[in-house]
Amino acid sequence: MAATLDLKKINKTIKIFAVAQFGLIAILIYTAVNFQQRLQALGRGYRFMNGVVYAFVIQLLLFYPIFRFASKEANRDFTFIGKVPTQEETKEFTKKKRWADVTKISVMGFYFIFALAAPRDPFILSVIIYSFLLTVLTYLQCYSFTVKKLSKAA
After folding, report:
1. How far apart are CA 149 and CA 142, in angstroms?
2. What would the pLDDT profile of 116-127 be if each residue is shown by its tens digit?
3. Residues of 62-93 as b/e, b for ≥16 C-beta within 10 angstroms?
4. Exposed, middle or buried: residue 102 (CB in 10 Å: 0-12, 13-18, 19+)?
5. Are 31 and 130 in contact, with CB atoms under 8 Å apart?
6. How far is Cα of residue 81 from the mean position of the Cα atoms in its chain?
7. pTM of the model
């Protein structure tokens, strides 16, 4: 028998996402301070704000695709609240969830490989790491926002 999704499980996921967001923000602040110090040690402290601005521009370009992806995932999860799916629905749900997981792992892999292949310049690495952390934060916030919106509508 397939397990049913309920609002309690989704709310627990939202709470976990909130804790993860605080952790990611702490990591973002730590890396920002660390890269700022490294750039100042190299005499290029003025490049720090350029890196922050570049990361935000990249994030603005990625916002809509991330929002659409997170919204689709939240809608997928929300459609099964309170009902026992048939075997065919469970199979379709699992397939969609698996593809979403593969997509998330691929994005993480892209950033990891990009960071390894990039020159060891602190400025370039800072933009890559800021963009990665902001991408994850955006996904978590968009998923939470969509679930809360759907919860209010229901």
Report:
1. 10
2. 999 999 999 999
3. beeebbebbbebbeebbebbeeebeeeeeeeb
4. exposed
5. yes
6. 23
7. 0.92
